[in-house]
Amino acid sequence: MPISSAAQAPDLNESHFLPFNELAAEAGQLLFYDNILSGNRNISCGTCHHHDLATGDGLSLGIGEGGVGIGEDRVSGEGRAKIHERIPRNAPPLFNLGASEIRVFFHDGRLSKNNVFGNDFDSPADKALPDDIPDIMAAQALFPMTSRTEMAGDLEDNEIARAAARRPTEAWDLLARRVRSIPQYAQMLMAAYPELEEEADIEIRHVASALGDFINSEWRSFDSAYDRFLRGEDSLTAQQKRGLDLFFGEAGCSTCHSGRLLSDQEFHALALPPMGPGRTRTFDANVRDRGRLNETNRIEDAYRFRTPMLRNVALTGPYGHNGAYRTLEGIVRHHLDPATALANWTPAQAIMPEIPWLTAVDYIGQQDEREMARLAARIDIAPVRLSDAQVDDIIAFLHSLTGGEGTKGRLGRPETVPSGLPVD
Question: DSSP letters of 30-64?
Answer without folding.
Answer: HHHT-GGGSTTS---HHHHSBGGGTTB-SSSS---
